[in-house]
Every structure is written in structure tokens, then in C-alpha cells.
Design goal:
By secondary structure, the chain is of the alpha+beta class. It contains 3 helices and 8 strands; from the N terminus they run αββββββαββα. It has helices at residues 9-16, 70-92, 108-128, and strands at residues 17-18, 30-32, 35-37, 41-42, 50-51, 55-56, 94-95, 98-99. A hairpin with a 2-residue loop joins strand 7 (94-95) and strand 8 (98-99). Helix 2 (70-92) packs across helix 3 (108-128). The longest helix is centred in the middle third of the chain and has 23 residues, at 70-92. The radius of gyration is 19 Å and the shape is globular.
């Protein structure tokens, strides 16, 4: 049986972590067809004070296609917002001062793919809940 003075596993883990919520009310973003654009954001690595505050995707709907509905655009913009948010979480979620999962590393494409799937599922939930928003 562990000594009562011994830290519990959750305490050991928590002591190694650092995380900063890098979003704030002044961090406004503008949605454009292939980009979420906004002011520079704090640099999680501390290399620079600020880094560009935009997030882009090349696989966006054709902005001139009349078959692409407003709801389709909202779902697309959700993918931009969620990808930016998850990317920032991964930048700032660190173990012993090192990113737990590097959003720029070898898993970058897989991370984006997973977040895109999450955004798709959340958009479906939002569409089915539309009647509750009015």
C-alpha cells in the first residue's frame, strides 16, 4: 500500500503539465473561403513573441458554386475554427516544457484529418438541433 505522503499518479502527471488558454475576447477572426484570418497570436515556443494568426485550408468549397449552401459554408468554417483551436491547444499543452503532440510534426496531417471528422460530426449535430436555436 502506498505511503499517504506519496503523490498519486494524477498529482505526478499534473505537476509535469503546463497549459495556457491562448484565446481571448479580443482575438477576433474573419472567415474567408479558404482561411480564418485574424491578429497575431502568442508563440507557444517562445521563439517569437507573436506568430501569424491565420489558419488556411486548400480543400474548401467553390465559392461560386450555387449548390454550396450557407449551411455548407458554416460547416466548412467550423472546420477552420476547430483546426485552429486544436492546433493551439497542442501548441500550449506541454509535458515537462515540451509539446505533448507537436501539431507541426509527423502527425500534422492525421491531426487535421481527425479534427475535420470531429467538425463534420459536430455540424451534423448542429443541423439536427437547428430547431432548438430559434
Amino acid at each position: 500500500m502506498p505511503d499517504a505522503a506519496d503523490p498519486l499518479p494524477w498529482q505526478l502527471a499534473a505537476a509535469r503539465l503546463s497549459y495556457r488558454l491562448a484565446f481571448g475576447p479580443t482575438d477576433t477572426r474573419e472567415f474567408r473561403p479558404g482561411e480564418l484570418f485574424g491578429p497575431d497570436t502568442p508563440d507557444a515556443l517562445g521563439v517569437r513573441d507573436r506568430v501569424p494568426g491565420d489558419w488556411g485550408k486548400t480543400d474548401c468549397p467553390d465559392e461560386t458554386d450555387p449548390a454550396v449552401s450557407e449551411q455548407d459554408w458554416i460547416a466548412h468554417f467550423l472546420t477552420l475554427a476547430l483546426n485552429e483551436a486544436v492546433h493551439e491547444v497542442l501548441e500550449w499543452f506541454q509535458v515537462d516544457g515540451v509539446r505533448y503532440l507537436n501539431p507541426h510534426g509527423g502527425h500534422e496531417a492525421a491531426i487535421v484529418k481527425h479534427v475535420d471528422r470531429l467538425a463534420e460530426q459536430l455540424a451534423l449535430l448542429a443541423e439536427t438541433d437547428e430547431q432548438n436555436r430559434h
